[in-house]
Structure formats: structure tokens, C-alpha cells
Amino acid sequence: MRRKLAAGNWKMNGLRAGLSEMEALAQRHPDPRVDILLCPPATLIAPAAQALSGSRIALGGQDCHAETSGAYTGDLSAGMLLDAGAGAVILGHSERRALHRETSEEVRVKARTAQAAGLTTVICLGESAFQREATNTLDIIGAQLSLSVPDGSTGVNLVVAYEPVWAIGSGKTPTPGEIGEVHTFIRARLESRFGPGVGRSVRLLYGGSVKGDNAAEIFAIPDVDGALVGGASLTAADFSPIVEALEEA
Ligand SMILES: O=C(CO)COP(=O)(O)O
């Protein structure tokens, strides 16, 4: 059985004052029936690890470098994230693919390094609005998946997040049928590449405008094991109902 996962991506939001939202979330969910992962800006990982010690909330980064150390001004290594208290890292988010021109090949090299360091990699895939209209979405997702996910991935070190670019921060979501089609496709591809055991153990998250009021419908879709949530993960009041919907799914 895959353990469900509610993950929050704070993106470039959050100062130390935001730690109180994390603490409030931990108080609301002292013994959650699902995994909870918060990925704040890197500056907050170490203080969050301290603030959340003893809680069941795990922490993650939002990116890391493909190399383990060296002359890469401004970058962070997987080992640094781990050292600060992270157990996971988001890689290949569409904002990094678009704004930092990250390719799937680069994502795969980063993921290999992060997995070797002991981090769980949350690898993001998703088609743009243009791609959905102009081409076959499954071809786009299939190519991103095979190029971004490294060999040696397992249900422990890999989580895949399907985030249609046009659904991020837009208030628009695909239909349950559209989400289900992509998740079922990703599951089948993982099973054929890694074998049914590993393929069935990897958790698949949906991301893009997940809120408290649409979470239950999304979590009822087969092969949706949780969500990667942006805006609605920033406060305990918004994120907690999503965690509860997942616990009840
Ligand atoms: O990009 C996302 C999570 O990584 C989704 O963001 P929103 O939930 O704000 O649409």
C-alpha cells in the first residue's frame, strides 16, 4: 500500500514569521494518517526543522544542484539540504523548467545526485496549455517522465508530481477524467520501466490549484496518491482541510 502524501511547495514565499503556520499545522495534525511534507524556501529549512522537531511533518527543498560541491555561486547541494533538515527535494518544477530553462536531462542528473545523497526526489512533470491543445499530452508526459527520472529510482526515493502548467496558480483544474488518464499512464510507464513492484510503490501526486474545496474530488481519482500544493499550503487554515481530505480518501 502506498502511503498518501500531502506536500506543500511554498515557492519564493515565507519569512521566519511563516514558521508559526508550520507549527499550527503540526498542532492540528499531531498524528496524521498521511505523510505531510513542507518545502519552504531553503532559508527556512533549518529553523523549520527546529520548530517542527517532534512533529510528524517532514521538510524538503525546492531544487538542488547536480554536483555535490564546488564553485557554483548561489546554488545549493543535496547534501546541504539534508544537513539543514530536509528529507526530500522538488526537482523539475515547471517554474524552474520555464524560468531557468531546466531540461529533463538536467533534472535527471540532479535527481541522481539527490537520491544518492539520501533525499526523496519529487519530480514534476506537466504539459503547457499550448502543448495540451497542439499535441498529445501523454506524449509530452511520457517524454518528460522517461528523461527526468533516473535509473535506480524506487518507491522510497521517487515521488512523481503531475502538474499541468496551465493549472498552476490559475484556479483551473483538469477534469477528474483528464487527471486520471495521465496518472494511469504514468503508473503504467513506471511499471514497465521499473517492474510492477517498484512501479506500483511510487507515489503519484497531482498539483495545480488544489484547494480545500476540490481536494476530495481529486483524491478520489485512481492512482492519485496525494497532492503537491502551492498557494493553499502557505497557511495551516488552507492546508489542513487538504490534509484531512486526503486522510479521508
Ligand atoms: O505549482 C504548484 C505546486 O508545486 C501548484 O501551485 P498552486 O497550488 O498554487 O496552483
UniProtKB/TrEMBL annotation:
Localization in the cell: Cytoplasm
InterPro entries, A to Z: Aldolase_TIM, TIM_sf, TrioseP_Isoase_bac/euk, Triosephosphate_isomerase, Triosephosphate_isomerase_AS
Primary site of residence: cytoplasm
Active site: 93, 163
GO molecular function, one term: triose-phosphate isomerase activity
Binding site for substrate: 9-11, 169, 209, 230-231
Subunit structure: Homodimer.
Role, per record: Involved in the gluconeogenesis. Catalyzes stereospecifically the conversion of dihydroxyacetone phosphate (DHAP) to D-glyceraldehyde-3-phosphate (G3P).
Descriptive protein name: Triosephosphate isomerase
Organism: Pseudooceanicola nanhaiensis
Gene: cbbJ
